[in-house]
Amino acid sequence: MAAGLELLYTSVAQSLSAPQDALLCFIHWEMVVHGYQCLGTGDKPGENDRKSEKLPAGWNSNKELYSLRYRSQDGTSHILLKSIMVENTMILNAMDPRLEQVVDVTLKVADYVNSDCLDSFEKVYKNSAELSALLLSRIISPFTGSKEKPRAMRESPQSHDPLRIPPYRPHTNPQPNWPDPLGPFAAGGTDLDPLGGRGGGGMIVDPLRSGFPRAGFNPSSGIPGHLPPGAVPPGARFDPFGPMSSSRPGPDPDHLPPPGYDDMFM
């Protein structure tokens, strides 16, 4: 419960004769806590208006209709607060006359005030936290929120998303730092667990990261007689389509010809 409410309640305890009086006392203190001061009663300014945290004289002379005027401490917001009693329910209406902005909330008095304990501040209120939150969201925030400067949205680090395409960053290392598979024959492992982040083993076997020892090879530098330099972007996966050197690897592909290969009469 907000500090200072007990002092306010005690100061008006002699004039509290209905549970809605106690409820309006709570509402008034919530206005004060959030930067408003009361100017007086009625719909229009009076000669005796002055800003105060206290409830003005005659504030509860009418048990069916309460009307109080407030102004924020910086003078930028004016609120006309009216409370209308309909049986055991209070209809709370707040309006800024200059902006023609109107908000309201309906409160069941018995939900927040023990009508049999008006002479005891320790027992008179119940569900105080719920009432405070309701008044803040429905009555106070619509007027104070427009004055608050929007906070800059801080960019939070993105969580790991296995489906997110990483931004392109040119590789400076001719041999990209790819993690090797768990073994040279681990092809297909990642396809069984595509979101597991195993780091390799897809169904496409990349000769450049197959797990076998390999000499340093940079396809972006070109392949003599096959590809000019720069034809393969740095760091791109490259599937060789022919021998990696100018010399043909032995043995000769035709070293096992079919029977009668050289017989012109066959």
TrEMBL record:
Location within or outside the cell: Cytoplasm; Endoplasmic reticulum
Chain ranges of the PI31 proteasome regulator C-terminal domain: 171-243
Family (UniProt): Belongs to the proteasome inhibitor PI31 family.
Matching InterPro entries: PI31-like, PI31_Prot_C, PI31_Prot_N
Gene Ontology terms, MF aspect: endopeptidase inhibitor activity; proteasome binding
Stretch list, region Disordered: 146-165, 217-266
Comp. bias regions, Basic and acidic residues: 146-163
Cellular compartments per GO CC: endoplasmic reticulum; proteasome complex
Any one GO biological process: proteasome-mediated ubiquitin-dependent protein catabolic process
Source organism, top-level taxon: Eukaryota
UniProt keyword Cytoplasm, yes or no: yes
Record-annotated PI31 proteasome regulator N-terminal domain positions: 14-149
Its job: Plays an important role in control of proteasome function. Inhibits the hydrolysis of protein and peptide substrates by the 20S proteasome. Also inhibits the activation of the proteasome by the proteasome regulatory proteins PA700 and PA28.
Protein's recorded name: Proteasome inhibitor PI31 subunit
Primary site of residence: cytoplasm
Originating organism: Microcaecilia unicolor
Keywords on record: Acetylation, Cytoplasm, Endoplasmic reticulum, Methylation, Phosphoprotein, Proteasome
